[in-house]
Amino acid sequence: MRTALFFFVSLIPALSAGRAQVTLESAPPQEIRVYQASERVSAPELRSTPFTPAECGTPLTGEVDLATIVDASGVPRNTMFVHPLGNALDSLALSTLVAERFKPGESNGTPVAVAELVSMKLEACPVQMQNGSGSPFTDLRLHSQPEQRFGRTDLYSAEAVYSNASPGSFNGGVYRPGPDVSPPVMLLASPMLELGSGTRAKYQGEVMLTLIVDSFGMPQNVRVTRPLRMGLDEKAIDAIRKARFKPAMMKGKRPVPVMITVAVQCRIY
User: Fold this and answer.
1) Given Cys at both, which of 4, 45, 116, 179 links 103, Cβ 3.0 to 4.6 Å?
2) What is the pLDDT of residues 169-195, one digit of tens each?
3) Rounded to the nearest 5°, which phi and psi values hold at 101?
4) Which strand (E) or helix (H) includes residue 10?
């Protein structure tokens, strides 16, 4: 038997409207000019931070490309994926960059916000942890100091509005795509799963999922809204959790979390 999963992202208001929270702005948020490093604008400089390595026999390795705006105080803002891996190293790269601090870039001696492309090479070890209720889970911890290379990016508009969210947080509310909110764009989907062999489909259908794509482009709160059973629902959930997105944008200037519907087409051979 061969099982194939195909991804089609569709926005279906009827499924999203009952759960998505829409936040109304009480006042226009502050817009910040975003610069590019150049002869007149210095690039941000990464500050050194204390580091305690985790030990393991064979670290998980990979390179993740991210984009970020280093603000005038040296804090990364509006961070998003450029080239993700589709595994746990994506979350580790994201949390690592968000926690970094920089000497900010300057224009005429004044600190300014500068857009940066960050290529981060990681080595990480699985570590057994416990959550708040005492249940065990496996997390990744850095095995060595990440290698980071910096460059220019044109992913941001000349003016931006900062998102105050942290990864996985929806404190500002969850939006629906619409006139002011562009939908997220899938950058990476989990590879198609195939088991067995055959030439004619014996069964096919769609698993409908709802999820929140947070302001960093990570899938959160994945739920089945129309199941297929036969073990396909679980495969669809596992696969979409590995998907990565360019986040939804509010008026092209601020990343925001949105609820979307994903149709995962399945065929059993």
Assistant:
1) 45
2) 776 789 998 899 999 998 976 544 444
3) -130, 145
4) strand 3-10
Confidence of residue 38 (pLDDT cuts 50, 70, 90): very high
Task: Tell me how far apart the alpha carbons of residues 153 and 69 are, in angstroms, rounded to a whole number.
Answer: 10
* Bridge partner list, 205: 266
H or E stretch at 97? helix 88-99
Query: What's the sign of the alpha-carbon dihedral 231, 184, 170, 154?
Result: positive
Angle in degrees, CA 28, 162, 48, rounded to 5: 155
The pair phi, psi for residue 98, each rounded to 5°, is -60, -30
Cβ(160)–Cβ(69) under 8 Å?
Answer: yes
Considering only 44-48, 135-139, 243-247, 265-269, which range has the smallest mean pLDDT?
Answer: 265-269
Q: What letter represents residue 212's amino acid?
A: I
Domains of the chain (ranges; CATH) run 1-28+170-269 (3.30.1150), 32-160 (no CATH)
Question: In this structure, what token pair is assigned to residue 74?
Answer: 């040296």
Residue type, 155: L
CA distance 108 to 191: 48
Answer yes or no: are the C-beta atoms of 86 and 243 closer than 8 Å.
Answer: yes
User: Cα–Cα distance between 89 and 84 in angstroms, integer?
Assistant: 9
The Cα–Cα gap between 246 and 258 comes to: 12
What are the residue ranges of helices labelled H in 144-258? 232-240
